[in-house]
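RECORD TYPE: inverse folding
INPUT: C-alpha cells
STRUCTURE:
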C-alpha cells in the first residue's frame, strides 16, 4: 500500500497509518460492544476492519491521483488548442504547452512526444507520437482533439472557429465530469450516514429489552449481527472502489476488433442470422416430431428450450445494436469534422472519398456503401438519406441531408456549415453524456438504501429470535 501510494506521488507515513488503524479498531470494537458481541466475534470484526482499512486508504489516494491526472489532461488540452490557434504548428504548440507543467507523468509523455517529432520523419509521425499520450489516459475526447489537430496540420484550411467550438465542447465535458464526481461523492457521504443510522436502529433492541429477554445472548442473533456488520464493512469498501477514478469514465470508442466482431455477430438489421434461424427451425422441427410421436412432455421441453434460446439471441442482438448505435453517435461527428475540413478545398463527393482513409473504423463500411451508391446516382438524395439508414438515426439523416444541400448549392458555405454542425454536435454530445452520467448516478444512488436494507434483515432476524425466546419463557412459566 505504501509503495502504491508513493507511485501516485503522495506520502503516507507509517505513524499515520497506525493512528487510522487504531481509531478504526476502537470504532469497530465500540460498535461490536453495542451489538453485545464478544470473544471470537470481535476478533473476526477487527480482522475484517484491518483488511478493509488499507483498501479504503489506497482507493482514496488512487482517486486523488486520478483527479490530478484529469486536471492535468484538461490543462493540457486547453493550452494545446490555445497554442495551436495562435501558431498553427503542432510541434511549436506542444513545446509551449509543456511549459505549463513542472512535473508529472504528462510532462514526461509530452517530452517524449516532442523528442519523437524532432528526431523522426515518417508519414504517420503525428499519430505515433500522440499515441504516447493517448495510451496513458485512454480518453476518447483526447483522441478526438488529437485527430482534429493532425488533420489541420496535414490539410490546412480555416480552423479557428472550429477550434473555438471544440474548446467549448471540452468545457462542457469538464463541467459534466465535475458534476458527476460531486454527485457521486455526495452519494458516498449519504451511504456512510445511512450505515451509521442503520447500525443504531439495528442495535436498538439490545438496548431497550430487559436482561431476561436479551436476544443478543443467542448465538443465532450473534451470527446475524456479525454478518450485518461485515456486510457494512464490505459495502464501504465496494462504494469507495466504485467511486475511485471515475474522471475518465464515459462512452468509450470500441476497438477495431470489437467493431468487426459486433458487425459479424449482431450488426445486421434482422434479429436472427442464418445459423440462428437454422438452430431454431431444427428445435421446432424436433418439437413437432415429438408431439406427433405422442411425446407431449418432450415436445413442451423442446419448445421451452427454443423460446429461451430465441429470447437470449434477441436480447444479445438488442444490446449489441444499442452499443453499435452509441458508437456511431460518437464516431459520426468525428467523421464529419474530417469531411468539413476537406470541403475547404474539394467538393462533397471528393471530400467524402478522401475522408475514407482516416475515418473511424465503424464508419468505413457505411462510407464505402455510400460512395458506391453515389456513383450510380450522383445527383440523388437517396444515398444521403439512406446513410446508416438501418439504424434510423434522425440526427444523422438531418446532417446528411444538409450535406446534400451543400453538394447541390456548392461548397462556398462549408465554413458556415461546419460551425452549425459543431454547434449541433456539441448539444447532442452534451445531452447524450449527461444522460449517461445521470444513469450512473441513479445506479450509485441505489447503494444508499443498502445499509437500511441490511438493517431490515438484521431486525427481522432479531424479531424472530425475540419471538423464539419469548415462547421459551412462556413454556417455562
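DESIGNED SEQUENCE:
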Amino acid at each position: 500500500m505504501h509503495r502504491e501510494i508513493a507511485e501516485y506521488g503522495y506520502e503516507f507515513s507509517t505513524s499515520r497509518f497506525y493512528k487510522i488503524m487504531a481509531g478504526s479498531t476502537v470504532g469497530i470494537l465500540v460498535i461490536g460492544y453495542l451489538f453485545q458481541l464478544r470473544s471470537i466475534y470481535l476478533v473476526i470484526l477487527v480482522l475484517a476492519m484491518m483488511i478493509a482499512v488499507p483498501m479504503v486508504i489506497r482507493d482514496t489516494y488512487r482517486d486523488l491521483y486520478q483527479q490530478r491526472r484529469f486536471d492535468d489532461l484538461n490543462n493540457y488540452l486547453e493550452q494545446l488548442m490555445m497554442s495551436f490557434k495562435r501558431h498553427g504548428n503542432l510541434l511549436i504548440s506542444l513545446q509551449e504547452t509543456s511549459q505549463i507543467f513542472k512535473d508529472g507523468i504528462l510532462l514526461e509523455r509530452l517530452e517524449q512526444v516532442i523528442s519523437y517529432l524532432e528526431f523522426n520523419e515518417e508519414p504517420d509521425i503525428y499519430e505515433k507520437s500522440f499515441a504516447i499520450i493517448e495510451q496513458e489516459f485512454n480518453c476518447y475526447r483526447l483522441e478526438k482533439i488529437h485527430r482534429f489537430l493532425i488533420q489541420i496540420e496535414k490539410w490546412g484550411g480555416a480552423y479557428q472557429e472550429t477550434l473555438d467550438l471544440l474548446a467549448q465542447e471540452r468545457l462542457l465535458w469538464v463541467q459534466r465530469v465535475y458534476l458527476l464526481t460531486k454527485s457521486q461523492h455526495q452519494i458516498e457521504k449519504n451511504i456512510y450516514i445511512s450505515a451509521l443510522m442503520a447500525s443504531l436502529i439495528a442495535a436498538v433492541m439490545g438496548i431497550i429489552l430487559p436482561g431476561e429477554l436479551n436476544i443478543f445472548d443467542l448465538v443465532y442473533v450473534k451470527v446475524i449481527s456479525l454478518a450485518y456488520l461485515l456486510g457494512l464493512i464490505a459495502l464501504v469498501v465496494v462504494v469507495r472502489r466504485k467511486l475511485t477514478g471515475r474522471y475518465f469514465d464515459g462512452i468509450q470508442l470500441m476497438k477495431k476488433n470489437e467493431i468487426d466482431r459486433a458487425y459479424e455477430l449482431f450488426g445486421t438489421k434482422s434479429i436472427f442470422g442464418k445459423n440462428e434461424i437454422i438452430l431454431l427451425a431444427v428445435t421446432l422441427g424436433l418439437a413437432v416430431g415429438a408431439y406427433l410421436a405422442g411425446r407431449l412432455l418432450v415436445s413442451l421441453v423442446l419448445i421451452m428450450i427454443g423460446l429461451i434460446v430465441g429470447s437470449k439471441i434477441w436480447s444479445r442482438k438488442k444490446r449489441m445494436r444499442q452499443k453499435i448505435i452509441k458508437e456511431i453517435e460518437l464516431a459520426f461527428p468525428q467523421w464529419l469534422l474530417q469531411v468539413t475540413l476537406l470541403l475547404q478545398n474539394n467538393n462533397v463527393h471528393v471530400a467524402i472519398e478522401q475522408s475514407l482513409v482516416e475515418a473511424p473504423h465503424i464508419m468505413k463500411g457505411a462510407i464505402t456503401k455510400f460512395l458506391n451508391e453515389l456513383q450510380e446516382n450522383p445527383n440523388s438524395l437517396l444515398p444521403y438519406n439512406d446513410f446508416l439508414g438501418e439504424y434510423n438515426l434522425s440526427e444523422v439523416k438531418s446532417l446528411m441531408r444538409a450535406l446534400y444541400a451543400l453538394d447541390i448549392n456548392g461548397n462556398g458555405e462549408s465554413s458556415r456549415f461546419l460551425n452549425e454542425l459543431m454547434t449541433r454536435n456539441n448539444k447532442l454530445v452534451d445531452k447524450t453524456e449527461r444522460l449517461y452520467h445521470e444513469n450512473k448516478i441513479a445506479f450509485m444512488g441505489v447503494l444508499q438504501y443498502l445499509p437500511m436494507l441490511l438493517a431490515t434483515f438484521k431486525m427481522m432476524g432479531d424479531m424472530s429470535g425475540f419471538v423464539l425466546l419469548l415462547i421459551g419463557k412462556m413454556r417455562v412459566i
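NOTES: The longest helix spans residues 39-87.
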